[in-house]
Amino acid sequence: MSWKLKTFDELTTRELYSILKERTEIFVVEQNCPYLEVDGKDLSSYHLYTEVDGEIAAYLRILPAGVSYEQASLGRVIVKKEYRGQGLAQELLQRGIDFTLNELNEDTIKIQGQHYLEKFYSSFGFQTISDVYMEDGIPHVDMLLQKNANR
């Protein structure tokens, strides 16, 4: 499976459309959570994804420090339903972490993870730094990954 990493301006209109379609399908429709999915942060982000037959199979966005938090961040992590359970989420997240720490030379990554995925994120070295709180009707926790800490 080949992975692509692009800035917003490098995305074709078809790629952007596919990314937004899948994010909306999962975060708004599947999770029954009406919220402003297109939040303006895509313009300053890197977009990491893989496609199968022209459709987004897995995706996440990498937000440089200062876009969402003072630290760099990963967000909008998705794997399309048909491709779940095949290890794509692990590969996607590891590629996002590696790019952020090694290419962007960031020391810390902050995420706002859905609470049910806390164990998954902690398996990559993220540590929970908040109590569980509700965000758009879904329990979340804030987590941090420190470069070279327990890795």
From TrEMBL:
Q: Which residues cross the membrane?
A: none
What InterPro entries does the record point to?
A: Acyl_CoA_acyltransferase, GNAT_dom
Please state every residue range assigned to the domain named N-acetyltransferase: 6-150
Any Pfam family from its record, for instance, is Acetyltransf_10
Report which superkingdom the organism of origin falls in. Answer: Bacteria
Report a single Gene Ontology molecular function. acyltransferase activity, transferring groups other than amino-acyl groups
Q: Which PROSITE patterns match?
A: GNAT
Its protein name is: ElaA protein
Organism per entry: Fictibacillus solisalsi
Q: What is the lineage of its organism?
A: Bacteria, Bacillati, Bacillota, Bacilli, Bacillales
